[in-house]
Amino acid sequence: MTTALPERAGRRCHNVLNPLHSCQYFSPELGTELAAVGVADRNAAYFAVRAAAMGAVGAGTVTATFYNFRHELVARHVPEVWRTASPEVVLAARLRAADGTLRRLLGDEVIASEEVAEAAALALRAAEACTRTARPLYAAHADLPVPEEPHLALWHAATLLREHRGDGHLAVLLDAELDPLEALVSHTATGKGMAPKWVLSSRGWHREDWHAAQGRLRERGLLTAEGELTEAGVALRKEIEASTDRLDRAPYEHLGAAGVERLTELGTGLTSKALAAGAFPASAFGKG
């Protein structure tokens, strides 16, 4: 049975749960755990931990499912990384890193709290309504076992919900005819995306690629000469988010309005604590 939700309720819930998953990519614990299994390069570690659920896939699959990375960067590390550490080894290291990261950011008292257990149960219930069809990253993660410890079960559920929304988002970007870098440039121009220097250092693109993408967006009337979104650009980004919401509504309708409200409340408290503890670098997001 599904329940109608207030507008953007699912997006708000996603926005406060996703950091509980994504903070791991910025954590020292992830670097330590991957280095311990032989994967010391930061980019290789990211590709490995996010793709491992799909098995020992090649560079083409990673580029396709991650969308906004330059293929040449991916191919520099994949499939070579699997010769260093198998997907099974990487997944075990990733879970240890998630445990360490959440314990550092939230503290053992919060980790053991009833609120974390309740949030995990609600998030897992929402994920019951996620669908595998045309969602490769979600489908791969849905085949993984749910960790027993509540804070790791919550992290796992946040991962499922993140990849489910993300897979749908890529379909929307394709329909909007935004290539990988155009999607990044336009998102950054909203003020909510990753800062350009972080995009260039982590996604494999060069400054000239960034400028070329800006030029293509200007030709479409989506970006001003100063790099700001035009009225049409703002409208397109809003349409993209609304369409992504529509494709991602099932888990939140399944959970119901009261459940979504409670999960959002719990997620807000946990994410606020994680952010206050330095979950993300201050310079990682924004237009600068």
Give the uncertain stretches in residue-range form: none
Computed CA radius of gyration, to the nearest angstrom: 19 Å
Total helix count?
A: 17
Structural class: mainly alpha
- Please give the share of residues in helix: 55-70%
Characterize the biggest β-sheet: none
Tell the overall outline.
Answer: globular
| DSSP, total strands | 0
Secondary-structure element pattern, one letter each: HHHHHHHHHHHHHHHHH
Termini separation comes to 45 Å
- Strand fraction band? under 5%
Compute the average pLDDT. Answer: 96
Report on the structure:
The chain is mainly α and 288 residues long. It starts with 8 loop residues before the first helix and ends in a 12-residue tail after the last helix. The protein is globular and about 55 Å long. The longest helix has 26 residues.
Please write out the topology.
Layout: H1 9-22, H2 28-36, H3 42-51, H4 59-66, H5 71-77, H6 80-84, H7 87-106, H8 108-111, H9 114-127, H10 136-142, H11 150-175, H12 180-189, H13 196-203, H14 207-219, H15 231-247, H16 249-255, H17 257-276
Helix pairs in contact: 1-11, 1-17, 2-7, 4-5, 9-11, 9-16, 9-17, 10-11, 11-15, 12-14
